[in-house]
Amino acid sequence: MTPTITAFQRSPDRGRGLARDMRVRWAFEEVGQSYEVRLVSLGAHKEPAHRALHPFGQIPTYEDGDLVLFESGAIVFHIAQRHAGLLPGDANARARAMTWMFAALSTVEPPILDLHNTKLLEGDKSWYEQRLPVVEDRIRVRLGELSARLGDAHWLDGAFSAGDLMMVAVLLRLKTSGLLDEYPNLSAYVARGEARPAYKRAFDAQLAAFTASSRTG
């Protein structure tokens, strides 16, 4: 049976590859596995039918027979465990790749999402001008630490892994902020991720879905 994932019919990111289904699409492409996509309209993701798959009413979800998963990190990890290509064979290297997945989602992404929410939801607030630099500096702390760890390496721990996939996906949210440009090795790291054929295939698929939905909507 071919797994099915959900994605927004008309993604708020307008096909820029930032919606979280992109991470799952990319993982499937890296391991050479086919998948199907069921598009969900904005609003329908909060309805009972979708909440039965994702209790928090978000995307993506993953369905494969009787197995239903939610949360992009968990789905990518499941794909990486089942198919070769995203986790090293060596047990210690495998554990380190898993650690980087958690680091991307638990340590690096939260301040980046805080910046996104600050700009989106608080731009008209009296405290916005004072809050924005504080939020940006929190991101700089994490980027500085990550930059120091990456150094001149191409990937976080030897060969490309699910840890890099998740980290690049998280850092992509900073491309338009200018913050990533302050760390040339991180900018190059993200560019390497975007240059991977599997990433390009996933990006094109997500963009095509958005474009088709825009034409019919």
What do these coordinates show?
With 217 residues, the chain is of the alpha+beta class. It folds into 2 domains: 4-85 and 198-216, Glutaredoxin (3-Layer(aba) Sandwich), CATH 3.40.30; 91-195, Glutathione S-transferase Yfyf (Class Pi), Chain A, domain 2 (Up-down Bundle), CATH 1.20.1050.10. 56% of the residues lie in helices and 8% in strands. It has helices spanning 21-31, 48-51, 72-82, 91-121, 128-150, 162-171, 184-195, 197-216; strands spanning 4-8, 36-40, 61-64, 67-70. Strands 2-1-3-4 form a 4-stranded mixed β-sheet, covered by helices on one side. Strand 3 and strand 4 form a beta hairpin. Helix 6 packs across helix 7. The protein is globular, with a radius of gyration of 18 Å.
Helices and strands, with pairings:
Elements: E1 4-8, H1 21-31, E2 36-40, H2 48-51, E3 61-64, E4 67-70, H3 72-82, H4 91-121, H5 128-150, H6 162-171, H7 184-195, H8 197-216
Parallel strand pairs: 1-2
Antiparallel strand pairs: 1-3, 3-4
Helix pairs in contact: 1-3, 1-6, 1-8, 4-5, 4-6, 6-7
